[in-house]
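Hi again,

Forgot to attach this to my earlier email, sorry! This is the prediction with (4S)-4,5-diaminopentanoic acid bound. I've pasted everything inline since the attachment limit keeps bouncing my files.
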Amino acid sequence: MKNRIKSKQYFSQAQKVIPGGVNSPVRAFGAVGGEPVFIARGKGAYIYDVDGNKYIDYVLSWGPMILGHVDSRVIKEVAKTLKNGTSFGAPTKKEIELAELITEIYPSIEKVRLVSSGTEAAMSAIRLARGFTGKDKIIKFEGCYHGHFDSLLVKAGSGLATFGVPSSKGVTKGIAQDTIALPFNDIAKVKEVIEKEKDNLACVIVEPIPANMGVILPKGNFLTTLREITKKYNIVLIFDEVISGFRVALGGAQEIFGIKPDLTVLGKIIGGGFPIGAFGGRADIMNYLSPEGPVYQAGTLSGNPVAVSAGLATIKALTKEGTHEKLDNITQALIGGLSKIIVKTNHKAVINRIGSLFTIFFSDKNIICDYNDASSCDLKKFAKFFQGMLAQGIYLAPSQFEANFISVKHSLQDIVKTIRSAERVLTK
Ligand code: HOZ
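Structure tokens for the complex follow:
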């Protein structure tokens, strides 16, 4: 590895004109120290920084680049689209194609609307649930992150957990008091609160596989009971599958656990590396949206043709037989190797993984299953591990309160290099 002098220079230059030097907080490396790496380009499983260093990329733009960087199928489709114009603010045929593909793959989604980001999709889904039910309160889970919409910035994960301020300033008391945050995986608590608040609750929003407090796995009956109880009281159940959608399986967490939420929030992979989001679900709820219904939602770049083309190309590539199995196998090889190295080097850690999503928690605990567990981990050790790995050319998520991702381009050689690097770092 060469030094990262240019990254350092760019970071101080950026701090003069961009708050914190970054356009999204986690990128600032606040939790792991040092300066962020400025990226010049990517190819396949690798990214290259402005100083000419090469890294195996386990962030993959936080999920969208499941085919790796500069995938030829995506680039070809995007190039074709670019020639015909980049935005019209009017309908295009490809939007129907993407909507049809999503509704085919997600049986719970009868109708879907495209927006420009996951935040926008979650925000709109909440408004829709409130409009549909005529109720105000929502339940979310501690450490789950659904973008930076006011109602959802209460006890949130991702950058908020990373910087230790899970509830953002600037959210009014009125908004915050309509949000009830409960511990993930604690179904008894959920039942108790729903029984008490059922007449005021518009919706429950959940990442069925939380990936913004690190990856957390739902306990046996947590999601099914959540489905049963919300159905019983006509409370809209919203699955935020921005990260898990098309990743843990083509049909997301809802396919794996066999649950039909009322609404689903999507993003990331469905834009193939371009800004996009989507929310969809039961037709009777979606028909409440303007211009059919009374709930307003709109956007100039919604259904943008470039993003839609990239998303279509990505999803079509993912539908190829065996893609998720391959992702699963390669991730299993990595996690198996890392687990052995952790034991061999006498460290204590838990690795949570599902499909090609994983997080390493340095902890004495045997299981990490909610935000409290995640917060109690050895974050200093995580930071040292992260920096050690970076110096070896392994680019992991720069916060324990995030997920790591694997693409179809990660090879066995990349996995072996990563495991060897981990052995050197953990031995030291
Ligand atoms: N909140 C995103 C990850 N969960 C990070 C977004 C970014 O920094 O790009």
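The chain has a mean pLDDT of 96. The pocket of (4S)-4,5-diaminopentanoic acid is lined by residues 24, 26-27, 62, 158-159, 212, 402 (CB under 6 Å).

That should be everything now.

G.
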